[in-house]
Design goal:
The protein has about 160 residues and is α/β, with parallel strands linked by helices. It has a single domain, classed as Ribosomal protein L30/S12 (60s Ribosomal Protein L30, Chain: A), CATH 3.30.1330.30. The chain contains six helices and seven strands. A five-stranded mixed beta sheet has the order 1-4-2-3-7, with helices on both faces. A two-stranded antiparallel sheet has the order 5-6. β2, α3 and β3 form a beta-alpha-beta unit. α1 packs antiparallel against α5. About 5% of the residues have low confidence.
Length: about 160
């Protein structure tokens, strides 16, 4: 039985995002923190397929909000996949971080890794099967309020 992205619930997608960030951290393909993500992208790596995870900043944190809006615009302009998640605290809990980060970036595997599938902008890099499912899910539900923000599991 083949599962289509349209058959996946927001809850199931949250579990896939969790798995993707844990795997990317283990493989050293995860960048955490708004300033670190911006720095990485400004160093000229925007041509490597990536998924940018953005959580809403804390209430009243206008500086972070403005930086995230600019990052979202940059991602849109440069074809970087953007995934909106429900809570920055959950990323910290999932990864057992001492700080809360409202932004993370998963960059693609080098070609030849066993879990990669498909060719993107650069033939030397590929997203994993799970990461491709996340991108497809977000593209399918881009305009739907119910699905536009993915809810991560609590732990």
């Amino acid at each position: 039985m083949v599962v289509k992205n349209s058959d996946i619930s927001n809850h199931q997608m949250g579990n896939l995002v969790k798995k993707a960030i844990v795997q990317a951290k283990f493989e050293k393909r995860l960048i955490l923190g708004l300033s670190q993500v911006v720095k990485y992208l400004m160093e000229g790596y925007s041509d490597i397929p990536t998924i940018c995870l953005i959580a809403p900043p804390k209430q009243g944190d206008f500086a972070t909000h403005m930086q995230e809006v600019l990052l979202q615009a940059y991602c849109l302009e440069n074809g970087i996949n953007t995934v909106y998640i429900d809570c920055a605290d959950k990323i910290s809990r999932i990864l057992r971080l001492p700080t809360t980060e409202s932004c993370a970036l998963i960059f693609a595997n080098a070609a030849g890794d066993f879990d990669c599938e498909g060719t993107f902008l650069d033939e030397d890099y590929h997203l994993t099967k799970i990461e491709k499912m996340i991108v497809n899910y977000c593209e399918e539900h881009w305009d739907e309020d119910e699905y536009s923000t993915i809810r991560l599991p609590e732990k």
